[in-house]
Specification:
By secondary structure, this protein is mainly alpha-helical. The protein is built from eight helices and no strands.
């Protein structure tokens, strides 16, 4: 004979199953409330857009500092890096739209400050994780975009810290 607690639990499960059949949700119970993999990927891509725009903002500030002391090669390098970061953000925004999401408004978050402190290896790891998620979900177009970003990051030489320290001294 079954205990009353077991019968109560089985009645709740049956009621949940009937509700599931009526509402047409894909999975009854706590799993139905979880985010889909696409939704979490869209949120991660929004964070990447924010990161790229912060990096672009930082490179623009460096270009302006270099222009103030007439260091044209440093200014060109910083401008090129800012343009690359903005291209990456635009490509990621297009992929979010393609996935059916909307790029999050960033004005208030960018005004709050902060920035990327992870370095180049952290940036590569971050995009590698996004690439693995896209491969798992079968999002080939996103994979191509991420491969392009990684290729571009590998091709650009690292910024010279000594040159930027020189700018700050003036």
């Amino acid at each position: 004979m079954r205990s009353s607690a077991f019968r109560g639990r089985s009645r709740r499960r049956a009621a949940a199953g009937r509700e599931h059949a009526a509402t047409g949700r894909s999975r009854p119970g706590p799993q139905a409330d979880r985010e889909s993999p696409e939704a979490s990927l869209i949120e991660a891509l929004n964070e990447d857009i924010e990161l790229e725009l912060r990096m672009a903002d930082r490179h623009i500030a460096r270009a302006l500092a270099a222009a103030a002391i007439r260091r044209d090669p440093i200014q060109r390098s910083a401008c090129d890096r800012a343009a690359a970061a903005m291209r990456h953000a635009a490509a990621l925004s297009a992929e979010i739209l393609h996935l059916g999401g909307t790029p999050a408004p960033l004005a208030e978050r960018l005004a709050a400050g902060g920035g990327w402190r992870g370095g180049a290896s952290g940036l590569f790891r971050r995009y590698q994780r996004r690439l693995n998620a896209a491969a798992r979900l079968g999002l080939f177009r996103l994979e191509e975009v991420l491969h392009g970003i990684l290729r571009e990051l590998r091709a650009s030489p690292p910024p010279c810290g000594a040159t930027f320290r020189t700018i700050r001294m003036y």
